[in-house]
Amino acid sequence: MIEISSKDTLYMYNVYHITKAFFPNREIRQIVDERQGPLIELKLEEDPCFLVSAEELGQFLDRQEYKRQVTKRVYDYLCSLTGRSLAWGMLTGVRPTKLAMQKIEEGRNKKETAVFLQDTYGVSREKAELSFEIASREKELLGDLDYGTGWSLYIGIPFCPSICSYCSFGSSSVHIWKDRLDEYVGALCKEISAIAGMAKGKRLTTIYIGGGTPTTLKAGQLERLLELLGELFSFEHLIEFTVEAGRPDSITEEKLKVLACYPVTRISINPQTMQQKTLDTVGRMHSADDVKRVFYMARKMGFQNINMDLIAGLPGEDAADMRDTLRQIEELEPDSLTVHALAIKRAARMAREGHKMDLHTEIEKMISDSCQAAFRMGLKPYYLYRQKNIAGNFENVGYAKVDKAGIYNILIMEERQTILAAGAGASTKIVFPEKIELENGKKSSLVRIENVKDIGEYISRIDEMIERKGEWLWR
User: Fold this and answer.
1) What is the pLDDT of residues 98-138, one digit of tens each?
2) pLDDT digit string, tens, across residues 155-183
3) Distance separating alpha carbons of residues 468 and 450, to the nearest angstrom
4) Are 321 and 282 in contact (CB under 8 A)?
5) Which of 5, 56, 145, 375 is most buried, judged by most C-beta within 10 A?
6) Tally: H helices and E strands in the chain
7) Across the strands, what pairs with 2?
8) What's the number of CA atoms in the CB half-sphere (13 Å) around residue 56?
9) Are strands 240-246 and 203-211 parallel, antiparallel or unpaired?
10) Which residues pair with 306 in a beta bridge?
């Protein structure tokens, strides 16, 4: 048991996640007590308490600098205690490339940006340089994008053929909902129609149909959805239309033919691993051979921008398994590859069942081998994000051929363009040109509007989901 007590919740988030990264399998207890003396008190069973007091930080720091200094002292202590450091140092946020982007916009070069990230946050040189490379590519890819009247559309299909043991997304087994799929599609179409009215006169930049697994819908249901999009929206300014087909066991020739009849420019076929033992362990109902069969089927039908997702750190896998998976992926030659470091959240079955994993010994090799494999395939890193409880405190990286990067993926990370989202659990992000005052009195240029996650609630409360957006949109 590790106990973290804090005088202020301001410090707890970062300190907890830094400590969890060093001790992923230890139970951590959090206590907030305004009456205690130190800002942070860290108690490990086998070691003396470690304290951070306000006196040692000085009196002239603002709250955010206090937060950074507290986190740095805890991070330095844990490095000294364990004899190792973390690849991303003391950074705990999901978008570390934003710091690199800020430095680029200040006119800093690669060396200056890397030194800043290393000295200020303890980021390794390799990750600091990766941040600069990705931020530079993001800036190039988004350079001519219309932020004023441009917007993107996300459509969520919260169903999967089965639920993987590591998954914590709000997806449900399609078999449970098979008798209500038409109801869901009907509610979804109603929300999309309302969005079309709200966005009239604006330029649609990208469409992303994700999930879940969109191809759990029947071919006719997919066609109903895509036909509606064609009726409601002009594709004149559309630069990308992605359908995350996802699970090979949900993809059929009939469904691919439906997608091919519409201006879909990019699809995903996601194996996560090519090791059959692992697919069976985590509950995916397809084989490695199914992945290859579906991939070649899509190529034969003319899809020229196919992404594939892999996960580093799945249970029972080591670096040799990952290398074999990468070898098989290289033979397929996808146009982009997204490599995720496993993140197990409390809602995932794997976490509830109490699986203990060594999240450090092999992950670094897997991440490094993935980077080298992407380089051999002619793919360059173009976006990066991190998650809570991510294995080894690493990251998720998207690699792509020069002209095949997923623009929507960058937009969702950079938060510079409004993204209107439809579907159960979908999250709308409305971006304003200037900060506005929110209901809680704070000011922000970004407003998030969440749809309910429960599928039945979404269907029955669809009018409420629509009304929520109308209150904020295009102020």
Assistant:
1) 999 999 999 999 999 999 999 999 999 999 999 999 999 99
2) 999 998 876 666 656 567 888 888 999 99
3) 9
4) no
5) 5
6) 17, 17
7) 28, 44
8) 11
9) parallel
10) 267
